[in-house]
Amino acid sequence: MAASGDSYTKDKIKSSTAAASIETASKSSNSSTNEKEKESPEVIRQRILDQEAEFRASQKPTTNLGSLWSWKKSEGRRPEDIATQPSVFDNPELAPYFQPSERYENRHRFDPSFKWTWAEEIPLIRKIDWKVTAWSCIAFFALDLDRSNISQANTDNFLDDLGLDTNDYNLGQTVFRVSFLLAELPSQLVSKKIGPDRWIPIQMVLWSVVSAAQFWLKGRSSFLATRALIGLLQGGFIPDVILYMSYFFKGTELPFRLALFWMANRLTDVISPLLAYGLLRLRGYHGYEGWRWLFLLEGILTFVIGIWSYFQMVPSPTQTRAPWRKKGWFTDHEEKIMVNRILRDDPSKSDMHNRQAITFKLLWESLCDFDIWPIYLIGLTFSMPAGPPDQYLTLTLRQLGFDTFDSNLLSIPCQITCTISMLLITYLSEKLNQRAFMGVAMQVWLLPCVIALYLLPADGSRWAAYAVVTVLLSYPSTHALQVGWCSRNSNTVRTRTVSAALYNMAVQINSIISSNIYRRDDRPEYRRGNRALIGIASMNIVNYLLVKMYYVWRNKRRDDTWEKMSQEERRNYLATTTDKGSKRLDFRFSH
Asked: Membrane-crossing residues (predicted)?
């Protein structure tokens, strides 16, 4: 576990403990000749994978951002120490069940007897970070720049210039989010079929062209059409990038990289107003409004990033050579290290090749996993009290009397403080091992702020209004925390990707509803809308508490069932159960 974790000795003890339990289960499964005859190698293999997935879940950080604070847990390692992680491949009885598929693109570098040192692994990980992690952050910057620059355009009389009103703006944002939502799963199917290294650059180039084409917007119809196209082309980008990154990093390393990936989103919200501060000054150049130049030039910028991505991305760790990159990224020795370290961490990654489509069976199984539904329900409303104020931030600042340039600069502080508070609440979640209570804390932050927003007098100080909105939007977001929560309660490698996508779809529905809370007949104070936000924040507090009670109840029922079983019954269950993931009696839900 090169980026974070304990020394090799400690890793070996932990992994050996896991292997011992797996081997015990394997032996138990052979206690009866009839049972042995009934079980196929695929059944045995899947049962061991489930048990290893549970072990990894107990060792890895509970949230994606949590590993920020465990980045330096490498004390006690010496460069000459062996970095090879113990795994099922070290057990002659278990190894045959985990041989890579014949179609696995990295199979030629697989060698279960291969060993390497920390002096070889750590520099290799740093190289991967520069090649893959850095690219992913820049790519996310491109996505967020083109989907959110409409907020900066609003400070330059965008709506008035096109003859639009608040309701039209709401409809445009709704169309974008519905399109984004509908494209999530189809995009993942395409990405898995043709490869994320091909599909992601295509997405980026196409949405950049549409974004730049907003320079020629004429009215309501063209506005809605471009919002729909951008949503369709951007949908699925985030899970596609996560899939791509999983080709290069172990399960314990990926969370830290995803933390950087999501923080790039917040940093875009800081950089975007600064870019707008300069680009909107082009108003009147060649007779065009400043917002037109904003869309055009930022679209060209992200188009260039999309083209660069085509040449930067690679199909897999062993397929990095290209006509423009004749030597590739890695030596043959480095490729062997990469492939073997990935498969030792998670043998199931060799089940499919990088051009193999996923099936709908996995989606259906994930949909039927009702124990994850409470987290999906949380995703539907948790950020809604902050949604409309965030979406209307620049418009609100203009209505308060701030000019175009001040409005863009004044939108920056809350983005910085929100990033800090998000990291803090994620840290506290890990330290206290609490998730639902962290969600309650977020709503407790938001509730008095939306109450204050509702009570602000229409003729009050504009700085007082700005202060309330800034404090509100500095809220400690639990979004990243809840992605980790959903992943942890899924408990299998096979379902985590789908459950994360379903949770993200719930969040998109959240955004769609948020886009229609502030209405034209309620402006400029939006009293009715803010009253609704007060009710939603109050409801969310109850929701989080109910979800916690549900998981506590589910765990107690399993505890009762488990305690009534004898040791022999438990061993027999572990050896023969067909329960998967969170359905297993020995699994307990996080809350």
From this structure: 199-217, 229-247, 259-280, 292-311, 409-429, 436-457, 463-486, 532-553
